[in-house]
Amino acid sequence: MNKNSALVKRHAVRAFEDKAAVDLNVLKDIVKEAGLAPSWGNSQPWKAYLAVGQTVKNIRETHFNSATNHVKGSPEVVSPKGWSDYAKNNMKQTTAKNDQFLGDDGNQDYSDFNAKLFNAPAIIYITIPKISSAYSTYDAGAFGYGLALSAYEHGLAAMTAYELIRYPKEIRDAFTIPEDEVLMMGVAIGYPQDKKLNQLHTDRNDLEKFLSIED
Ligand SMILES: Cc1cc2nc3c(=O)[nH]c(=O)nc-3n(C[C@H](O)[C@H](O)[C@H](O)COP(=O)(O)O)c2cc1C
User: Fold this and answer.
1) What sequence ranges are listed for the domain Nitroreductase (predicted)?
2) How many domains does the chain have?
3) Residue 5 falls within a domain, yes or no?
């Protein structure tokens, strides 16, 4: 593995620096580069909404109030069938390892920083048309992953999170998003804080578990 590649360097960053705003031109480059993702027939089904400055601060504050008051999330895209046993087992192992590494204080930080939307100075929201082929969700995922990888290429860090789109109203109040688009996912971008919370190392299954080869 190439340790310097963005693919290998990328990991979830759940606490961003407060002070450092991100250059708007860099953020625009990141979105442009992510837009090079392949898509079915070059359909490019994604749209991106970028919150920075006072807008992102307002969203973070509203979100914090909802999260700390335990308001139930109402995402616009809901998994139709839940998780397979294979996925459940992967999540269980990940949570157990994270819990152990973080300890009580770190776990508190984990939820606190989710509620604070990771202190992110920039959040990019991804939408796709409400009426979409399943292939468009695949394409939007490629776009979202591109955002994260490009951020690392630019010396930044990124965080893909459900938490970011858990309360769609706070986002729709900040932007004019057409009703025929659904909020699919959010990607936060910024400079990472030097914190234990940002040092989680998640494992991946051995290749044999998810790769079948026939020669
Ligand atoms: C679609 C998606 C949603 C996620 N939602 C959250 C979230 O709401 N909160 C959180 O702390 N992490 C969230 N994560 C981060 C995952 O937990 C993380 O990517 C996973 O554990 C693998 O770790 P790594 O990103 O460091 O490789 C999300 C990741 C993805 C791809």
Assistant:
1) 8-191
2) 1
3) no
Bigger pLDDT: 197 vs 2: 197
pLDDT band at 174 (very low <50, low <70, confident <90, very high): very high
Ligand 1, CB within 6 Å, residue ranges: 11-12, 14, 94, 114, 160-163, 185, 202
Q: How far is the CA of 187 from the centre of ligand 1 (A)?
A: 10
pLDDT exceeds cutoff 80 at 15: yes
In 3-state terms, what secondary structure has residue 24?
helix
Q: Of all protein residues, whose CA lies closest to atom 21 belonging to ligand 1?
A: 202
Nearest Cα residue to atom 2 of ligand 1: 161
What is the extent of the structural domain holding 151? 16-210
Which residue, 121, 126, 149, 136, is CA-closest to 33?
Answer: 149
Q: What is the residue with the minimal CA distance to atom 18 of ligand 1?
A: 12
- Tell me the one-letter amino acid at 212: S
Locate 156 and state its tokens: 């930044």
**SS3 call for 33:** helix
State mean pLDDT over 77-88.
88
